[in-house]
Amino acid sequence: MLPQKMKISEKAFTSLRRLQNNTGLTVNIGARLAFFASIERGFTWNGDDIQLTQRELDKYSWLGDHGDIIEMLLKQKYPNLDNKDYYKAWAIHVDDGAIVIENKSSLESLM
Amino acid sequence: MILKSLYLQNFGVFQGSFDDNHVDLEPRVKYNRKRPIILFGGLNGAGKTTTLTAIRLALYGKQSLGRSVSVQIYHQFLVDAIHKPKGKVLAPNTAGIKLDFNFGRQGEVIDYTVERVWTVRGKSVFENVEIYQNDEHLKSLTDHQKQAFLNELIPIGVADLFFFDGEKIADLAEDNNNSALADAINRLLGLDIIDRLKADLGVYLRDRKRDKLPSAIQKEMEALENSYKSLYSKYQSQLADIEALRIESTELETTKERLNQIINDLGGAWASNRQEAETKEKMLRAKRNELQVQIRNLIADAAPLALATNQIAALLKQLTDEQQSKRQLVLQVELRKQLNKIQSALIKSLGKEHKKAIETSIEESLPAATSIDTNIIHDISDSEFNRLNHLITKVVPEQQAKVKALSSELEEVEEELAHVGLNISRAPDERRISNFVSELGEIENSLGQRQVEIKQRTEAAKATLREAMDSLRKLREKEKEFGNVTNLDQAVTLADRTRGLLESFSSKSRETRINTLEQEFIKSFAKLARKDDLMITAKIDPETFSVSLIDGTGHIIDKKKLSAGEKQIYAIAMLEALGRTSGRNLPIIIDTPLGRLDSHHRENLVKNYFPTASHQVLILSTDTEVDEDFYKELSPEISHAFEVAYDPEAGSSVYYEGYFWRH
User: Fold this and answer.
1) B367 and B227 in one domain?
2) How many CB atoms lie within 10 A of CB B19?
3) Which of A10, A16, A14, A46 is nearest to A28 (CA)?
């Protein structure tokens, strides 16, 4: 469903670099936290386009061991999208969640 | 003895030369009568106590500060006593006191002048004492001899009882000051002279008796005596050395205190455990890193799923529903297959005419087949479902709890780290205090050495004393052995008898004198005490001179339970009684005599004590102590009065003749 290589937006990347400075969590792990935070808070993609320019990694690096759950959550929220749009939806959610978590100043305040 | 004049030069609050600060202390004759009281009035801090201090300092020098005061402390006192002028760039470095007095000796009145001047140059203090006898400069005396000469005129122990601070004199009533009182009683009653006479006669007797002895034994005894004398003087000098060491070690203690203070001010208390703190900080940092790695590992795994608990729960529900519907679907297909088989078998055996009925009844018995309303979205396998179910319901909550526990542990570590870091930042750099610390170490070392030395020397002195006593005992044995066999001439016989006589005279005289003292005390006390105290009597032990007060019912009063004012009254009564019993004619100076007393005691003191205390009474008081009423009461006895006034503009005090309301 999600492509094998993925990128995220400039804005999300900046936010996640800030999180990395504060907590030592790398950008790909930050992206997972951002995704879960965003999906939980009820944010919904309204179809806007997004420029994906930063840090090409393969799907496994971005999603980790439990990537299937991320895909299922996306499919559950958006049951009728094209495959390439699921990529956009994922990136939009990372974009949205990154802002929520970028100001967490330490590891112990994250969860 | 009469104090005639006091001159001060840049002493304490008094600025200027001897001519600027001069008071005439000699009692004046008015209406053909010599009046004893000279009154000094002044507000607090004006310079009354300075006047008393000046007189004592003039007469006793270093000893006026106390018994064993080091030269260093005395010099510091002299430096501090130099007037510090207000707003002048150049402070004086010289101060001085001059005291004129006369003294009756063997029917002759001799005038004395003591002049004590000291100068500070750099850190050194140079003190010069000059004595004039009938205007004749006593030149040939050394400083030490000059002081000894003054001490012989008025012994310091006695002076404490005549020149005193009314507030402090109450200490005399304390039991622990018994030795001071005993000393004073002995001296004032002249009992010390008898003891000395007895000792002198003993020496005379020994010498005379020895002359009569065979020369061999004489020599032996001389050797014993010499050994005793040299041992005893060795013992004395050992004692003096020990005293010097004691003073040194007190000074070292002071320096040690000061250094400790400096080190504390520099944060030394923190420095001492800086290393410990640094070790702890290292350990905490390691622990923090470990905790962070653990948390990061969990966050890289399944823990973040907990961030979307609701969404994932919804997902799980969807997956469960899908599984159920799929299972139902499978079940229905299977059921349909079986029913179809049964149907065809029934039709076959019952005949085609029943086909319709069979089909209908089988259809009716089927459960509502379309209970599956779940949308199949994900369509995952059973094993996949089981894996996800386990992950979501077991693994995620476990990891979440672990992260929480690790996080709070990390928080504690961070807090501790901040605390330790603060301590470390407070701790000064070792180098900043290392000089002081090493100096402190040296001082502690030498203090320890001094203490060991004092202990050793005390032992040595004791040993010397034992040896001396041994020689003395041998000498006495020889005297006894040969004393009786020789013929004694008349002088020796008489001296011997006199010695015996003195012995009994001393104890008899002591008894009578103490008896008189008791009587005098009761008289004085009755004059000074309030009416309700009148039943009190005193009992003085002739051996120890300890004084017991006895109330009307014969019970001994605990002196510790007396109030400060009562102690003062008790002490003044005792002083007056001592003065009268001794028959010494010394002036009396009292500083702040009435401070602690109630109105009854004050009145008694003013009416009954001051006018008759001595032929010269200097009273230093504030305007509230001797107020207008008391002044009037005393005025027939007042020779003249001074007011000591402080001028805040000039920053110094001046003596005016007159009193607060009389100029």
Assistant:
1) no
2) 8
3) A16
More confidently predicted of B395 and A110:
B395
| Residues B422 and B434 reside in one and the same domain | no
Q: Same structural domain for residues B404 and B281?
A: yes
Is the pLDDT at B176 greater than 60? The verdict is no
| 3-class secondary structure, A7 | strand
**What's the CA gap between A101 and A103, in Å, rounded?**
6
Cβ count within 10 A of residue B624: 10
pLDDT bin (cut points 50, 70, 90) of residue B427 is: low
Instruction: Compute the distance between CA of residue B53 and CA of residue B40 in angstroms, rounded to an integer.
Output: 14
Q: What is the DSSP letter of B81?
A: H
List pLDDT tens digits, range A51-85.
988 888 999 999 998 999 999 999 999 988 888 89
Q: Which of B426, B442, B473 is the last residue of a domain?
A: B426
Q: Is B378's CB within 8 Å of A106's CB? A: no
Asked if B415 and B294 sit in the same domain, the reply is: yes
The partner residue sitting opposite A29, judged by closest CB among B300, B375, B391, is B300
Residues 6+ apart with CB under 8 A from B548: B538, B539, B540, B541, B556, B557
Q: Which helix (H) or strand (E) holds B399?
A: helix B396-426
Return the SS3 of B46.
Answer: coil
- The pTM of the whole model exceeds 0.80: no
- d(CA B17, CA B9) in angstroms, rounded, equals 5
Neighbours of B420 (CB within 10 A): 20
Q: Are B536 and B529 in contact (CB under 8 A)?
A: yes
Whether B318 sits inside 8 A of A66 (CB atoms) is no
Q: Which residue has the tokens 């001085």?
A: B96
A105, A24 Cβ separation under 8 angstroms? no
Domain of residue A11, CATH code = 1.10.1220.160
Tokens encoding B86 = 């207000």
Within 10 angstroms of residue B41's Cβ, the number of other Cβ atoms is 25
Please judge whether B305 and A108 are an interchain contact, meaning their C-beta atoms are less than 8 angstroms apart.
Answer: no
Integer angstrom CA distances of residue B539 from B511, B516, B532, B534:
12, 11, 19, 15
How many domains is chain A built from?
Answer: 1
B335 and B469 fall within a common domain: no
Same domain, yes or no, for B369 and B230? no
Instruction: Tell me what pLDDT residue B160 has.
Output: 72
Co-location of B284 and B342 in the same domain: yes
Same domain for B304 and B411? yes
Range(s) of the domain holding residue B473: 221-267+430-485
Chain A residues near residue B411 by CB distance under 8 angstroms: 108
Domain boundary residue among B426, B450, B465?
B426
Q: Which residues of B touch A72 (CB under 8 A)?
A: 315, 319, 378
Interface A-B: count of C-beta contacts within 8 A:
87
- Taking contacts as CB-CB distances below 8 angstroms, the residues of chain B near A76 are 311, 314-315, 318, 377-378
Residue B189 lies in a domain: no
Question: Containing domain of residue A57, as a range?
Answer: 5-110
Helices (H) and strands (E) in chain A, counts: 5, 2
Beta strands B617-621 and B588-591 are: parallel
HEC profile of B357-379: HHHHHHHHHCCCHHHCCCCCCCC
**What ipTM describes this predicted complex?**
0.93
A68 to chain B: which residues are within 8 Å by CB? 384, 388
Domains of chain B: total:
2
Long-range contacts of B88-94 (CB under 8 A, 24+ apart): B92/B10, B93/B119, B93/B120, B93/B121, B94/B9, B94/B10, B94/B118, B94/B119, B94/B120
The confidence score (pLDDT) of residue B489 equals 65
Q: Does an H or E element contain B642, and which?
A: strand B638-647
Q: Tell me chain A's radius of gyration from C-alpha atoms.
A: 13
**Nearest alpha carbon to residue B569 among B538, B615, B542, B614:** B538
